[in-house]
Design brief:
The protein is an alpha/beta fold. Helix content is 28%, strand content 20%. It has 2 domains: 6-142 and 189-243, Spore Coat Polysaccharide Biosynthesis Protein SpsA, Chain A (Alpha-Beta Complex), CATH 3.90.550; 147-184, no CATH class. The model has no long low-confidence stretch (mean pLDDT 91).
Length: 245
């Protein structure tokens, strides 16, 4: 079987608000993005590691630790409300046009989730290779709160259960699931920034970051870190101190 071209793509814009330049925020003497680049370098299957950024400082730091930055992302693709898809399509289009390089599989690695267990990236890649009919592999874990106890506002006055429309049958026999013990509620999972493994065609032809056939990659919720605000910093520090080598 022809060897697959596998690209790790790390999106790291410069304009974060909660923590200024959080993608290079120093933790244990290293910028946050260092840990994600190192995780990708430890993979035995990834061919290239590219950081997509609009920021010259982030690009320089990424190169220092072994990633490529062959382009700077346009500022219009680095705004607060920019979704992932156009960022990835920009990177893949640039590589195809400028280098005639087209990977078969793209690994989406969020730099603000700096800890990943050794071997997990390759396990996730193998999952997609073993299931070629799938569109992607997406990391998930057990949420800290169940969505069956979450609400939306109805015309900003009354509350309505967030899942009632999607789980009508369950609500018929359990009209107030928000009062039930968690153990009696259906299992749910939350997507994480741990990793994503995506076919090229899913992004470029199906215009999706996941497609419809998504294989779950489960990981330990106690080890999951996501540095979105300063309140996340202590947990991130704790996990990296205990497990990073």
């Amino acid at each position: 079987m022809k060897k697959k071209k596998i690209l790790a793509l790390i999106p790291a814009r410069g304009g974060s608000k909660s923590i200024p330049k959080k993608n290079i925020y120093p933790i244990l003497g290293k910028p946050v993005i260092f840990y994600t680049i190192e995780a990708a370098k430890r993979s035995g299957l990834i061919d290239r590691i590219i950081v997509s950024t609009d920021d010259e400082e982030i690009a320089a730091i990424a190169r220092e630790y072994g990633a490529e930055t062959p382009f700077l992302r346009p500022s219009k693709l680095a705004e607060d409300n920019t979704p992932d898809l156009p960022v990835f399509q920009h990177a893949l289009s640039w590589l195809k046009e400028k280098e005639n390089y087209q990977p078969d599989i793209i690994i989406h690695l969020w730099p603000t989730s700096p800890f990943r267990k050794d071997g997990d990236i390759d396990k996730a890649i193998d999952l997609l290779l073993e299931n070629p009919e799938a569109d992607s592999v997406r990391s998930i874990t057990v949420p800290s709160q169940t969505p069956f106890k979450m609400w939306r506002t109805d015309k900003e006055k009354y509350l309505s259960p967030i899942l009632k429309k999607e789980h009508k049958e369950f609500y018929k026999t359990n009209p107030e699931p928000h009062t039930l013990p968690r153990q009696l509620l259906p299992k749910t999972f939350v997507q994480t920034g741990y990793l994503g493994v995506i076919h090229y065609k899913t992004i470029m032809r199906k215009n999706s970051m996941t497609g419809k056939k998504i294989i779950p990659f489960f990981h330990d919720p106690s080890l999951y870190t996501e540095l979105d605000s300063m309140k996340d910093l202590m947990h991130t520090l704790d996990v990296l101190k205990k497990h990073y080598r």
